[in-house]
Amino acid sequence: MTGYTSSAKYKSLEDIQRDSSELCLCYCGWEQCEPGHRYGPNRRRNYVLHFVSEGSGTLEVNGNQYNIKKGEAFLLPPATEAWYEADKEDPWFYSWVGFSGAKAKACVDNAGFSMKKPVRSIACLPHIQELIEKILEEYQLSFKCELRRNAYLLEILADLVEEYMSDAPGMVHFYPGTVYARHAIDYINQHYNEKLRISELATYIGVNRSYLTSSFKKVTGYSPQEYLILLRMDKAASMLRKTDMSVNAVAAAVGYSDQLAFSKIFKQYYGISPKAFRESEEQLVLCTHKGEFQTKFF
Prior knowledge:
- The protein has helices at about 105-110, 125-135, 145-165, 175-190, 200-205, 210-220, 225-240, 245-255, 260-270, 275-280, and strands spanning about 5, 10-15, 25-30, 40-45, 45-55, 55-60, 65-70, 70-75, 80-85, 95-100, 120, 285-290, 290.
- It is of the alpha+beta class.
- Strand 12 (about 285-290) and strand 13 form a beta hairpin.
């Protein structure tokens, strides 16, 4: 069995067997502290998050002191000296999770915690407390319990990341910008013929429009909006050459409900109207003011 302790004022689960190299739970618990109860100074070997449900206390980490109150959480980074103490008049009740793995730092970064900012308020605290209780119920040394413990840990971290991102969208990104750009390119290539807004595309991918645009330009040389229009024009030109579809049908097939708007944009890019383009017997050199257009970047 794992190291499980339960009493009226203290419950913890320690010495958990760890098999995952990406992210795994090391220990968790909760405690109703006595007035002035102090822990540390010491250094942890992993990341530890504390969640204060009641009362208040003081944290000192990396030489900086913080006054912690109900509804806040604080991070103890690994290999960093820290101590924390319950208030003498209003001692805190807190719960904690300790975890490690290759993705541990990315999790705390994306949840809004850092060495410079180890404390932040948490709106989803009641749900986190429920999840910690569920972890503590899965104390047996079994494969089933291990899966459930890690599932609850992932849910805790996902809640923290979701809440932080909703307050400050796009500030922290788990993947390199090229990953978001390639995902956006694939999506545009598949949905260019639909009503597509770049702001909605950014939301779908999980970043803000500004970050997506800058990442997209680094990969393609175009903004997402420019790429979308260029792709639509290239597809439209191909349809005008190879099919007998009406101009209105071609416009609809590449995402335009308004034929006049389509014709105007088409003429801006090719110098002639869609009808004249179809009737022309000359091989047109397809280019834009930005240079020759190619739809495939990879």
